[in-house]
User: Fold this.
Amino acid sequence: MRRRGRSIAALVLATLFGALFAAAAFAVNPDEMLSDPVLEARARALSAELRCLVCQNQSIDDSDAPLARDIRLLIRERIKNGESNEEVKAFLVSRYGDFILLKPPFKPETWLLWLGAPIVLALGAGLVWSARRREAAAPTPLTPEEERRLAEIEG
Amino acid sequence: MNVELGHFALALALALALVQAVAPFIGARRLDDALMRVGLSAAVGQFFMVALSFAALADAHLQSDFSVLNVAENSHSALPAIYKITGVWGNHEGSMLLWSLILATFGAIVALIGRGAPLRLRADALSVQGVLSAAFLAFILFTSDPFERLWPAPLEGRDLNPILQDPGLAIHPPLLYLGYVGFSITFSFAAAALIEGRIDAAWARFVRPFALIAWCFLTLGIAMGSYWAYYTLGWGGFWFWDPVENASLMPWLAGTAFLHSVAVMEKRGALKVWTIFLAILAFSFSLLGTFLVRSGVLTSVHAFANDPRRGVAILFILALFISGALALFAWRAPGLKQGGLFAPISREGALVLNNLLLATACFAVLLGTLYPLALEQATGEKISVGAPFFNLTCGALLLAAAFALPFGHSLAWKRGDFLGVAQRLSVALGAGALLGVALIAFSARMPPLAAIAAGLALFVILGTLTEVFVRVTRSGFAPRIVFSRALGLPLSFWGATLAHLGVGATLLGLAMTGLGAENIVAMKAGETQAIGPYTFTIDRIEARDGPNYQETVAVSTLKKDGVVVARLEPSRRSFSTREAATTEAGIVTLNFGQVYVSIGDPDDNGAVAARLYWKPLVTFIWFGAILMAVGGAASLADRRLRIGAPRLAAARYAEAA
Assistant:
């Protein structure tokens, strides 16, 4: 029962569903950690980018599911053997698919995801721009002739 | 007996909601005052019926009446009284009833004290509220009945989920719901304005207080939820970009944008169509959040497996209201008269920029939340969208908005003097840049983005204070003059100032997490470990009994330079009824930062896995949110903006005439 996810989503979902749900112990445990602080720091940073496959949107660094622990041990093993972060990630993607990456790769299926916000920002800016031009165009400024007559009338 | 009464009251409330939906609408079309007023009475009556129903359910929980299914599944006779009450909304059925109660409360407020708005507008708005209420009440009665009986009644309940047995739960959902549902008022009034085809500054003046109330509660609710996660999860995380959190962030972003654009509309008559659109959007996101959380789409791949009827019903309600409102918008909005010209460099211009950035940030959150679901439906491919994506999109946009904030805060309406403002803000800008560069240069631990955010935060804080300084010293530096000028500034200015300082404080708190320290280590009683500037010693590890749990406590001491600064008691609790365990972190606040310690279960050698954190300035994250809400409340207290203020103004006008 202790291995369930701990994210706030799960908490709130639990609130709302009244689902049976258990709290967690820990994510990274002292016995898993590498003795070399530099390698360990790399492993931690890498863990934060990898999704725990059986939880709700949690990284394996935060999760205490047994699977997350297995992957944590696996990446430490690979880092110790001299693999780069990219090599470790590539191995995990070949094994579990893109689902394991919390930062989705940029590829045709995710173009819309990555470019959506910039496109909307540009569209919004364009809309503001054109609305301003329309507004500005509405009252035509006085011609020099009219200005002169206005000045005359005002005396 | 009470339970049946509650059930009956709920059915009556549904009937009244239907009356409220139909009568005032017809009245408004026929210009029949009496019929329009039926809507007001129905709204008040509906509130009393829902309140009665809620009280009946609360009573059943308090008395541990296990013949009610809802009580038997979510309560226990040994539960402390406070958690018997909070358990009422700690489950699906009860939380929906709370939602409806708050909806009815806002409706009744509009009916009782909304005399500032024209009767016809109010009648239309109450009619929309009536449709909303009816939809949710019918949803409760037909798919999520909290009053269902259980026979034979069990001797004991299955207990409230231990994680929910926490004071945080007592206030988090109600705050969040007050925020979510508060935006239903802006939604209803936007729909009413579209039905009438007319909108003006008076509309803005009437709706703005409701939006402010909703926004304050939503701000507090999100902050509370985040702090709750922080202290219950055992490792000090406070925001996860999780779909359910995103569901509460989206209405907050849309609501924040709305508050800024409605200010423009009230003051200058501009941005009417956009403001209406945001009003619809804010509540649509509230509904979307409800759908995401309640339907089960997010829990598993078996989308509606829990109870298909519930998910489909909520999806239906969602589609009905959002598409209905947007269709109404597309049909009627082009006919609304625009007004109020302004130069691009002006307060209005800055607020347009603010709206553009907030709305895009909101869209980025929406995209990141729904994209994986949509992609899986379309192609069967599974991807994850997590924190790195949101930090790059939503985070970047919000940082840009933070940079623009002091400029918008300082620019004048209609036509601003950019050079003058830039000159005034140069000190704040310089200080912020200096802090950012210094942090990058001297702290190896700090990620560059956090350093930039820290610099921006200082700029926001100092820039906001600069404007205060300029305003209070406009007619001289003598203390008496400064003081009287400060008193003379409108409360809404102080409100905006506080809220903007809150933004700066939250940003600073977030940025400074980069300077913290972490130490994860196995510790036995008597051992000492360093954490940040402190040393942490476990004096002894002991077992204790709570009212409905057993716990292992690490009684410990925190020292700085050999002097004891705090005693901590982090613990692990296990609840036998649900075979569940929770982590109770030991937390102490020191100079706005916190030392945070949590422990795991002891192993065979008596050692516990201890996680020690030093989080400098971490409390600023939540102090900032409180400051924002206080700012909102200050604005609310401004007598020009108070609910009903337009009525007083109208009365004075009538007297003068």
